[in-house]
Write a structure and sequence with these properties.
about 375 residues, alpha+beta, 2 domains, 7-stranded mixed sheet, two-stranded antiparallel sheet, 9 strands, about 20% strand, elongated
Length: about 375
């Protein structure tokens, strides 16, 4: 078959090598196979299509055209159908995502709120007359003889990191716990009932309403006892006679959740007190009052950063006191020379309306005070 433009028989002499010379080495490697032709963006019209008036020689192929036979009919090719299906799937997925987002908008999980304090305060009644004397002598003859004075008696344990808390965070939790014990058990204004702020500023904000109610309207309902939060004395009954309070106890910690650290405290505080009314008591008119506090303190990472705590529970024993006295608002010590009480706890009426006092009927017995023992006598030679 002759190439268009060539003579019918052969290429005239003196002219180039025709088709062979026209093709350069660059195009010799190109093979115009069927796939190449189908992929072309330009497509030649058929002879029938070119017969129309003002018909162009070629047309631009659609990107959705499947080529071949599909381009000559109105039915999309396989590639077009796949493309349209893909677009439809993407549009459907996007519409579903928008619908679900509007129907169920994402809400970040709320922070864990601090739980209310649960407290138990148990008065301890004496079994013998309450001994009196000078504070130093009373301490020396009591189990508190070897206790340290004040904050020195609140020693921190050896520190190690937990699975989710670093050793620095553990130290921070322990130091906040010690601050709370110092402020709530040793501060003179707290003991006298003249202040509450030093304790309040250390509490989680979620517990402040409960704390405030406990201070203004104390109740023995297990949640609103002022003496569950702190130590204070009824100023109409007794005042502290010696500011050098004796203290002994332990601190421990553990990780109870990936975001929660718990510190347990167990300390005994021994106070020298004297009568609050009348002339200043004689030098030998003081007596000892003992308070055992077992507290559970909790810390999340926000608490550690803000140097505050959640007081989860408090178990308190304090004496000598009268079992019939309500210790929820303040402690009322039995002072030097007071005889052992034979009156039991205040009566509880199960038929009374309102919220019952949960600690009603709770009363313990205070162990008799220790007395110095005489040194053993050496046998005669």
């Amino acid at each position: 078959m002759a190439v268009p433009g060539d003579p019918p028989n052969s290429t005239p002499e003196g002219m180039g090598g025709g088709d062979d010379e026209f093709r350069s080495d660059e195009y010799r490697s190109v093979v115009f196979d069927e796939d190449f032709v189908r992929a072309a963006r330009l497509q030649e019209y058929s002879a029938q299509e070119r017969m129309g008036e003002h018909a162009r020689a070629v047309r631009t192929r659609s990107v959705w055209s499947g080529g071949g036979s599909a381009s000559r009919t109105s039915t999309p090719g396989r590639g077009a159908r796949q493309g349209m299906l893909l677009v439809l799937l993407i549009a459907s997925a996007f519409a579903a995502a928008v619908y679900m987002g509007l129907r169920n908008p994402y809400q970040p999980p709320p922070g864990t709120a601090a739980q209310p304090l649960t407290s138990t305060v148990v008065p301890l009644a004496p079994t013998t007359d309450v001994p009196g004397g000078r504070p130093a002598d009373l301490y020396a003859s009591s189990p508190a003889a070897d206790y340290r004075v004040g904050a020195a008696g609140i020693a921190l344990p050896a520190v190690r990191r937990t699975h989710h808390f670093t050793d620095t965070q553990v130290v921070t939790a322990l130091s906040i716990a010690k601050d709370y014990l110092v402020q709530s058990s040793l501060d003179p204004d707290i003991l006298a009932g003249a202040a509450t702020r030093p304790v309040r500023v250390l509490l989680d904000p979620d517990q402040l309403a409960q704390f405030d109610r406990s201070m203004t309207s104390p109740s023995g309902d297990g949640r609103h006892a002022a003496t569950g939060w702190l130590v204070r004395f009824d100023q109409a009954t007794a005042v502290v006679a010696d500011s050098r309070v004796r203290v002994s106890g332990t601190l421990a910690f553990e990780e109870v959740a990936p975001d929660l650290l718990e510190v347990t405290t167990d300390h005994t505080f021994v106070y020298a007190v004297r009568p609050a009314t009348g002339a200043p008591a004689a030098a030998d008119g003081a007596s000892l009052f003992t308070v055992r506090r077992e507290l559970r303190l909790r810390f999340d990472r926000d608490d550690l950063g803000a140097r505050r705590l959640e007081l989860a529970s408090a178990y308190v024993m304090a004496g000598p006191q009268d079992c019939s006295a309500d210790p929820a608002g303040a402690f009322r010590p039995l002072l030097a020379g007071a005889a052992p009480t034979t009156v039991g706890p205040a009566a509880s009426d199960p038929y009374a309306s309102g919220q019952p006092r949960r600690t009603a009927g709770l009363c313990g017995v205070l162990a008799p005070p220790a007395t110095p023992q005489a040194p053993p006598v050496s046998p005669a030679p």
